[in-house]
Amino acid sequence: MKYIDVDSWNRKRLFNHFMQLKDPYFGVVVPFDVTRAFEFSKENNVSFFVKYLHDCMKAINAVDNFRYRIIDDNVVDFEVIHSSATIAREDNTYGFSFINYSEDLEEFISSFNKEKQRIQNSDELYPPVNGQDCIHCSALPWFQFSGHKEPSSGNIESIPELAFSKFKKEGNQLIMNVSIHVNHALVDGYHVRQFVEKFQNNLNT
């Protein structure tokens, strides 16, 4: 973790402006082509969710501003961001996970499976490891949405929040909408664009 010098940051005025707002988050819903990612998951007997989540986390970690968090009015760069995804139980409840990030897909799958097993064998809501060096995300595989809103605690928050919709077939493509909510004090549309491009490139490879 390293600190960002806000006084010398080129976004200093933007940061100070959005920090004054009651709700500084903004959100967009972006369609992604997941055709190749879905094919990869079937060819390699890998969970489709884990495959695209890993592609997402690679993109998150590749964009500086998506790693920034606000802690005690300071801006910090965690350098490595993990995933806190909701994982379902058989009784239709879920628990929050903390999936350690690795650029290696097999290591990421192993981390995911450990968290899945922990959650499905307990009724705990929160993971034993929990911090701001993550993103909050969930899959809504039952329907495709074109709009989405995350709940808010009313406190200062800075963790990006993502939700993944059901995909649908459009011609020869499988399209999945992804909701992206970010704190505007840290992230602008330009940085969302960077993330979107990197995520789509990862899905394609």
Annotation keywords:
205 residues; 5 helices; alpha+beta; globular; 28% strand; 9 strands; 6-stranded mixed β-sheet; 3-stranded antiparallel β-sheet
Task: Please list the strands of the largest sheet in the order they lie side by side.
Answer: 2-9-8-7-5-6
Helix content: 25-40%
- Mass-distribution shape: globular
Biggest sheet character: 6 strands, mixed
Arithmetic mean of pLDDT: 96
Structural class designation = alpha+beta
> Number of DSSP strands?
9
Radius of gyration: 17 Å
What are the secondary-structure elements, in order, as H or E? EHEHHEEEEHEEEH
State the low-pLDDT regions, or none.
none
The number of helical segments is 5
Report, as a whole number of angstroms, the end-to-end distance. Answer: 30 Å
Percent of residues in beta strands:
25-35%
Briefly summarize what is shown.
With 205 residues, the protein is of the alpha+beta class. The protein has helices at 12-19, 35-43, 48-62, 105-120, 189-204, and strands spanning 2-4, 25-33, 68-71, 74-77, 82-88, 94-96, 134-140, 161-170, 173-183. The mean pLDDT is 96.
Q: Mind explaining what this structure looks like?
A:
The chain has 205 residues and is of the alpha+beta class. The protein is built from five helices and nine strands. The protein has a six-stranded mixed beta sheet with strand order 2-9-8-7-5-6. A three-stranded antiparallel beta sheet has the order 1-4-3, with no helix packed on it. α3 crosses α5.
